[in-house]
Specification:
Blueprint: H1 6-9, H2 11-16, H3 24-63, E1 66-67, E2 75-76, H4 80-86, H5 89-122, H6 127-133, H7 135-138, H8 141-151, H9 158-165, H10 180-205, H11 209-217, H12 222-250, H13 254-259, H14 271-281, H15 285-309
Antiparallel strand pairs: 1-2
Helix pairs in contact: 3-15, 5-10, 5-12, 8-10, 10-12, 12-15, 14-15
């Protein structure tokens, strides 16, 4: 019969036995090996980032201080491009049109997406239905714009045919100063609301069920539960969604280029369209670069303000 040692007979003593300490040099070598492996995986993405993002950004900032067309060399002119914006009525009109679009797009998209997310969370449990909501987002933006451009056509569009059948006057959705931006916003809300709803749905899934159970036991109504529990706990995801959608809204271009081209009479000429026209329509790449830098600074400021004041990095679950 094998005789057990005192440490084998006493589990407490065995637990108190000091573990083998790894030498400091071996630990540093292991961390160095992990770092090399991480850099090996990051390296291809870093090449793409440097070539297609960092270098063009630095060159764009440089060109914003020059007068440059594609047929000649850049000529340094300092801040003249930036001071010229102060008196550029088309620039201020483009910013106003862009802000109008952003307000309509973000307002309707967020409300509709939040409603869809709540329905998916509480009512629609089918994976097929959830997947179907994402289908418009999977279609290329240009194709979506063309589809709605034909459907909303003043003469042969099916929507105007239905309106005419109802005895109402036809509407020039893309050909009217009053309707151009609201129509473009509606098209993009239709395309993106499913994707936004899935992001919010993922946020709803992260809220523990026991929180709702406690609220139910306390007699809280569905409305009170929504405003007092769901919205505060959903805030980090909602702020992230707002930051992403606001940045995307400021950069709207495809839908405008396909449907209105910035018209009628500059009614839908958003800032991205104005930058494109300055660069490739008038070959004024220096001024277009300055416009791009201003847009970048605006987006950075908007994202910072949203994260700071909406407290997107904090959660009431902590």
């Amino acid at each position: 019969m094998t005789t057990l040692t005192k440490q084998q007979q006493n589990p407490a003593a065995r637990a108190r036995r000091p573990k083998a300490v790894q030498p400091a040099g071996m630990s540093r070598l292991r961390r160095l090996g992990d770092l090399k492996m991480a850099l090996l995986f990051i390296f291809p993405a870093m090449i793409g980032f440097v070539l297609f993002y960092l270098v063009p950004t630095i060159r764009g900032v440089y060109l914003s201080f020059t007068e440059y067309s594609i047929l000649g060399d850049p000529t340094w002119i300092g801040i003249k491009n930036y001071t010229a914006m102060l008196g550029d009525e088309l620039f201020w009109n483009a910013m106003g049109v862009t802000l109008q679009y952003v307000g309509l797009n973000i307002g309707f998209q967020t409300v509709i997406a939040l409603g869809l997310a709540l329905l998916m969370h509480r009512v629609a449990k089918s994976t097929f239905i959830r997947g179907a909501l994402l289908l418009p987002f999977l279609v290329a933006n240009v194709i979506v714009a063309l589809l709605w451009f034909w459907m909303l056509d003043y003469q042969i569009g099916i929507v105007n045919e239905i309106i005419n059948w109802m005895g109402l006057p036809r509407i020039a959705f893309f050909g009217s100063e009053q309707w151009a931006i609201p129509t473009i916003a509606a098209v993009n809300v239709w395309r993106h609301m499913g994707y936004t709803a899935l992001l919010l749905f993922a946020g709803l899934q992260s809220i523990p069920n026991h929180v709702y159970e406690v609220a139910s036991l306390d007699g809280a109504s569905p409305t009170r539960t929504f405003w007092s529990i769901t919205m505060p706990l959903l805030r980090p995801v909602l702020v992230l969604v707002l930051v992403v959608t606001v940045i995307g809204s400021f950069q709207v271009f495809d839908t405008v280029a396909v449907t209105t081209g910035g018209g009628p009479i500059n009614a839908s000429r958003v800032i991205q369209m104005y930058i494109y026209q300055k660069a490739f329509g008038e070959s004024d790449f220096g001024y277009a670069s300055a416009l791009s830098v201003i847009l970048f600074l605006i987006l950075a400021l908007v994202a910072f303000v949203q994260m700071k004041f909406l407290k997107g990095n904090e959660s009431d679950l902590d």
